[in-house]
Amino acid sequence: MKAPALYWHFKDKQALPDEMVTEMMRRMAEDFPAAPAADWREVVTGAMRALRGHLLRYRDGAKVFSGTHYTDLSYAAPLEAFLRTLVEAGFTPGPERGYDLAARAERLAAYPPAAATGEEMFAGHDRGFEAGLAAVVAGVGATLVTAGE
Questions:
Q1: Pairwise CA distance, residues 127 & 105, whole Å
Q2: What is the pTM of this model?
Q3: Where are the alpha helices (DSSP H) in 10-124?
Q4: Strand locations in the chain, DSSP E?
């Protein structure tokens, strides 16, 4: 396939990976449970395993996924169900600026938790990394203590 053929279907160079990621997410969404588990730990564990599995199905899946934008809202309803479980467990999105979160929130207006989590997912990456790293280290530590008992 040559560039002119691609540009017939996609307006620019970024539109192709955006559509690829949207299709990947559609396929992932098909595997989301209709009713997520009540325990947030099961929800997160299952979602992360599913995400990893889907990303590994595609060459450079995680790399393609990074830095792209969805072209439609086909992911919003399954994401909403996943996030609602977390919100009901007491998690709240933490606001910070960076990515055009207002435009994202506007597109997701019918899905309030999904719209609100944009703040957490797309802003404060350094803070998020440090918090995640601390959680993983604490979890490994707890696992080692439990295994040694």
A1: 21
A2: 0.57
A3: 15-31, 40-56, 61-65, 76-88, 101-107, 112-122
A4: none
